[in-house]
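Changelog-adjacent note: as of this version, every example in the card shows the full chain rather than a window. The one below runs 145 residues end to end.
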Amino acid sequence: MAALLDVARYRVLFGDCDPMRIMYYGSYLRLLEIGRAELFRRLGHPFAEYVARGRYLGVIEVTCRYRRAARYDEELVIRAAVASFGRARVEIAYEIGAADGALVAAATTVHALVDDDGRPQRITTEFKAAIMAAQEAALASRGSD
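Full-length structure tokens:
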């Protein structure tokens, strides 16, 4: 798996939880969305720029392995990184961690780049290179903090 960047923090809301105040499994998908948006923003490619040009990352696959329960009012750390690219696909890896560093969940999402009509669009070599270079730079600067 690619090295992951800390991209966001999130405090579990009461509305995220089941009656036992444990974060409902479906609520983790929103954390992945937050992680994905903040990852691309941090890499200098906020989604708003692509939406304005009629380009979207449609989710075509999600996997999530739950390691331990997140609970109401717990602070979580969302980590993410681009794991791989295909011709019209991008895979993103995530970890959701507790403030003490314990792994709460590990996940991946696979997205197809599509236009306004939902047709797949090729991801350019230049875009792939720019994202990977920005990610490597962010990881390198993390080590010098």
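Structural remarks: The chain has one domain: 5-139.
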